[in-house]
Design a protein that fits this description.
The complex is a heterodimer of chains A (374) and B (624). Chain A contains 13 helices and 17 strands. Chain A has 374 residues and is α/β, with parallel strands linked by helices. Chain B is 42% helix and 19% strand. In chain B, helix 10 packs across helix 12 and helix 13 packs across helix 14. The longest helix of chain B is centred in the last third of the chain and has 52 residues. The two termini of chain B are 60 Å apart. Classes of the chains: A alpha/beta (374), B alpha+beta (624). At the A-B interface, helix 1 and helix 2 of A face helix 18 and helix 19 of B.
Chain lengths: 374, 624
């Protein structure tokens, strides 16, 4: 008992040190950026810095990393250039604000950042402008915004037998089992930064929709299939993708994705697997081993699912994705082609036609079996 | 066609205009008051222009009974310092329709002084009051007339005529008419204001019925060069006009009366009273070269009649039938018509031919039209398939139509002479715009003369930006022959050209403070309606307008971009002053320092440089 406690303590200590180190690194990096600007000004120079270009021409697909990354092009941001002066100042403020957040271990959201700017007389036209500056900061530092304690508004959630230990101030050392609350736990700053302690689950099921997530909890999919269920709430937010990656890397759990049977669903799975072009400046957000198990275009015919016709924009999206290097082979290519042939799509809810639990009783087991061979 | 014409001839011009007064802009009390003001002011300015006098024009409108609601009678008086009108012409000039001094081809505001008479007519039919004319053409005596118009007879009725001593030339016309000043006031004030912009050498005052005085003193001391009267261009002519020109060109057979016989006797140097026929002919032969044309014709006739003066006194020439070589006359002695044959070989036959059949085609063309030389005339005759020596008086109706048609189609005539035009000139126009709008930028252009359908025209245009100009532009000021056009702007060719312009291309955006002044000068402005308020889109005029506007817009564009640069420099200075201190503040905490970096000097230097740049740009574009 005593040994186990000591062991646990030392483990916790190690975890806490790791978090401290990470924080220290971030602070050091911000400080060095700040010092450079400070020195420029002190020497009577207009400060400037370089930032990797995020233009389409500089986004390339890295086959080894199996994700999009930024190329070598960089742009110079100078405070002398009056066209850049405003965004330069905004970025300086954001670094300054991130520094305070990190230093004080406080969390913020994208929206909160936008509103906080007003207190410092820093103007943002709207939230999308401030969101964009946050991406700039990520690009300059090559760190995701979560490292600076900036999170999106929570809309995805997690349920299943997973023990975590909080690291956020006031909750340090406190543990929680994520199967305790049937509505699931929202994936916010505290969960994203928490340590993953242990789990009995053998697989993670990422599902696109909140409705099906609730159904899966009700049907005890977590117990029946020894799984952790995650609701991505459509396109998975980056904090959720970070968590998925950690579940895969730290807990050694395979990840499968279950989406609507349309081209957008297919791409939700792809983003979890290999990231988005929007986040090409960041690593550590992808789960290259994640698998998409359905609903496939071929499932529509196989399970005789009720369908609706694809819209113009659905079809256009198919053609766009056909040009994407990640859709050139395997089921990705095959299913895309079938979608284009059918010109019809099906929702996850389509299985309700054959009974409310049909999806968990029949479809899911078959797909889980299939996933092993994918 | 001819029957309609006969009908028109049967009513007097006064009656015709009385029943068609809305055509001339007298459709209702509002429009009528405005039109009357226009007609009298324009007549005053035209009169001064023609004599090269710097105009002083005083316009007064007074309500007869100020307490009555509109529409009500007003007394409209326009006084000028022009040449005045001789007393003998006043009754006809102001008491008949279609009597005026403005016939002839040159640019003037009005054509025949018709509008003023219309105003008088309108005043008379609405208030039954006479027109009061005070005129002095010698700066000594002023004639004052009170005249009514006899509409049916188209004749003046003088109610009163007095004279008094005076020391200045000039004309004052006063009419009483029904008007609506509460509605027309705006337009009339605009009219006076805009007129003074295009007539910067005139001093115009306006006393309105409410006791307000509007004064527009002259700000240019030189009158633009006056236009010259010129002959018509072949392209600008129709069958009817040719017919009239032929009649003018044909020499009349002189009436042989006592006065004429006396003249012939005198020119031949005949002292004796009863000279024989042969001795008269002998004398004439000797003196032929020095004889005037009329006398020659009489001698020619006498040669065929073989009569002396005494006999000549007792007959009347009835007709000269050239094709049949017969001369008809009425003998008072035995009261019957007689005829004699004319010998075509006689030297006098040619004299009569000339007189009766008019000029040959080529002479007609070179003498009666502008810029047609003998070579062109012969070329044209070939083109029109007429003999160059064809006598104008012998043309058949069909040949006349053919001639008129060919005159339109022949391309080798020279372009119309523009000396009959009187543009204001770029410099006075620019001065006017500067004075009226105090703009940040102004550019003017006078296009070279061009022509449509044989009528020469010149486009003058100005463009101005900023200063006192109100936003919501472009505001377009339209002028034609120095008259502001205030009504019906929607269908005007100038507005069309302005609206077709993509101002964004010239860096003019939003609701710019921006005006365009357009002046079309021509011997005939192609108005769309008789009200003379909007110009039709003749292709040639539209093209010239477009070229003028494009030229000016490019200048405006370069002003706008320089202004943009100046503004950008200012803006940069402001941006530095705003943002650099913020960057300093944020990086100080970020770098973990206590003291802010020493950036103040750098910032000051930079702001100074930018401010200097802005000042320099502004000086360059400084147009004030």
């Amino acid at each position: 008992m005593a040994t186990s406690k000591t062991k646990k303590d030392s483990k916790a200590k190690a975890r806490s040190k790791k978090a401290d180190d990470k924080q220290k690194n971030i602070l050091e990096m911000l400080k060095s950026h700040g010092a450079k600007i400070y020195d420029d000004l002190d020497n009577g120079q207009f400060p400037k810095f370089s930032i990797p270009s995020r233009s389409v021409s500089n986004i390339v697909y890295d086959k080894k990393l199996r994700q999009y990354i930024l190329g070598n092009n960089a742009a110079l941001r100078s405070s002398r250039n009056s066209a850049q002066l405003r965004s330069f100042t905004q970025l300086m403020w954001l670094a300054f604000f991130a520094n305070r957040l990190t230093n004080e271990k406080k969390s913020s959201t994208l929206r909160d950042v936008y509103y906080s700017s007003q207190a410092f007389a820093v103007e943002f036209e709207d939230q999308s402008e401030s969101d964009n500056i946050i991406v700039d900061l990520e690009a300059v530092t090559s760190k995701p915004r979560e490292d600076f304690h900036i999170f999106p508004e929570e809309r995805s959630s997690i349920f299943g037998d997973l023990n975590i230990e909080y690291t956020i101030p006031g909750y340090e050392g406190k543990t929680m089992n994520l199967a305790n609350h049937p509505d699931g736990y929202s994936i916010g700053p505290s969960l994203t930064t928490a340590e993953l302690v242990d789990t009995s689950a053998e697989i993670v099921i990422a599902i696109e929709k909140g409705g099906l997530f609730t159904r899966f909890v009700e049907e005890q999919v977590d117990k029946k299939f020894k799984s952790i269920i995650i609701n991505t709430g459509g396109q998975a937010p980056r904090s959720t993708r970070t968590l998925l990656k950690r579940l895969h890397d730290e807990m050694k759990l395979p990840i499968i994705c279950l989406t609507d049977g349309d081209v957008y669903g297919e791409h939700i799975a792809m983003v979890i697997k290999s990231g988005s072009a929007n986040a090409a400046h960041l690593r550590e957000l992808t789960v290259p081993d994640a698998k998409w198990v359905g609903v496939w275009a071929t499932d529509i015919e196989k399970y005789k699912l009720p369908t609706i016709p694809m819209t113009e924009s659905d079809i256009k999206r198919c053609y766009d994705l056909q040009k994407d290097p990640r859709y050139q082979d395997g089921i990705w290519k095959k299913e895309l082609d079938v979608f284009l042939r059918l010109k019809r799509k099906a929702e996850l809810e389509a299985f309700s036609k054959y009974g409310l639990t049909n999806i968990t009783d029949k479809y899911l087991p078959q797909k889980l079996e299939l996933a092993k061979s994918l | 066609m001819s029957s309609i014409k006969e009908k028109f001839n049967q009513i007097s011009p006064s009656e015709f205009f009385y029943s068609n007064r809305d055509l001339a802009g007298f459709s209702n009390p509002t429009r009528s008051l405005y039109t009357a003001v226009r007609e009298f002011v324009e007549n005053a300015l035209d009169a001064c222009d023609q004599k090269g006098i710097l105009p002083d024009v005083h316009l007064t409108i007074k309500a007869v009974d100020p307490d009555k609601p509109d529409p009500k009678p007003y007394i409209l008086t326009v006084k000028d310092n022009g040449p005045g009108i001789d007393a003998e012409h006043i009754p006809l000039a102001f008491g008949t329709v279609l009597y005026g001094s403005k016939f002839g081809l040159k640019q003037a505001r009005g054509m025949f002084g018709l509008g003023a008479t219309m105003a008088i007519l309108y005043g008379q039919i609405t208030t039954n009051k006479p027109v009061i004319v005070k005129s002095s053409s010698d700066a000594k005596i002023q004639n004052q007339f009170e005249i009514l118009l006899d509409i049916q007879k188209n004749k003046p009725v003088i109610l009163k005529h007095t004279t008094k001593d005076i020391s200045k030339k000039g004309l004052s016309v006063s009419i009483c008419l029904e008007g609506d000043y509460s509605k027309a006031g705006n337009k009339i004030r605009d009219y006076v204001y805009e007129t003074s912009l295009i007539t910067p050498y005139a001093s115009i005052t306006f006393d309105d019925p409410k006791g307000n005085k509007f004064s527009h003193p002259r700000f240019v001391k030189d009158i633009p060069p006056p236009p010259t009267i010129i002959r018509p261009h072949p392209h600008g002519i129709d069958v009817e006009r040719i017919r009239r020109m032929i009649v003018e060109s044909q020499f009349e057979i002189p009436t042989i009366d006592d006065a004429m016989i006396e003249k012939v006797r005198k020119d031949l140097g005949l002292s004796k009273k009863n000279l024989s026929f042969t001795s008269i002919m002998d004398k004439a032969k000797k003196k032929w070269k020095n004889l005037p044309r009329q006398v020659r014709v009489v001698i020619a006739l006498m040669s065929f009649l073989k009569m002396d003066f005494e006999k000549l006194n007792k007959i009347r020439i009835e007709d000269i039938d050239m094709p049949n070589k017969k001369l008809f006359y009425w003998d008072f002695g035995d009261s019957q018509s007689k005829s004699i044959d004319m010998d075509p070989e006689s030297q006098y036959y040619k004299q009569l031919t000339n007189t009766v059949q008019g000029e040959p085609l080529t002479t007609f063309l070179t003498k009666r039209f502008q810029r047609v030389g003998p070579t062109t005339a012969v070329k044209f005759a070939e083109f029109a398939k007429l003999k160059p020596e064809k006598r104008m008086g012998t043309l058949t109706n069909q040949e006349l139509v053919n001639l008129s048609d060919s005159l339109q189609k022949f391309d080798d005539f020279m372009a119309p002479d523009s000396s009959c035009l009187a543009p204001l000139g770029a410099e006075p126009l620019e001065k006017g715009i500067k004075k009226f709008f105090n703009p940040d930028f102004v550019a003017v252009v006078q296009r070279p003369a061009s022509a449509y359908s044989g009528f020469p025209f010149i486009i003058e245009m100005g463009i101005a930006y900023g200063g006192d100009i109100k936003t919501g532009g472009p505001h377009v000021y339209r002028y034609a022959n120095r008259i502001p056009l205030l009504y019906d702007e929607g269908s005007d060719v100038v507005i069309k050209v302005v609206n077709d312009t993509d101002w964004g291309r010239y860096k003019v955006k939003g609701e710019p403070p921006f005006i365009i002044v357009s002046h079309i000068c021509s011997t005939r402005i192609p108005y769309k309606t008789a009200g003379k308020e909007n110009v039709a889109d003749r292709q040639e005029i539209e093209r010239e307008l477009r070229l003028a506007l494009q030229f000016l817009s490019r200048k405006l564009s370069s002003f706008m971009s320089k202004r943009g640069q100046a503004e950008a420099a200012k803006k940069r200075a402001n941006l530095y002053a705003k943002y650099i201190p913020m960057i300093a503040e944020f990086c100080t905490e970020l770098a973990g320092k206590k003291k802010e970096p020493n950036y103040k000097k750098m910032l000051e230097t930079e702001i100074e440089t930018e401010t200097k740049k802005a000042v320099k740009e502004e000086k360059e574009i400084g147009n004030k």
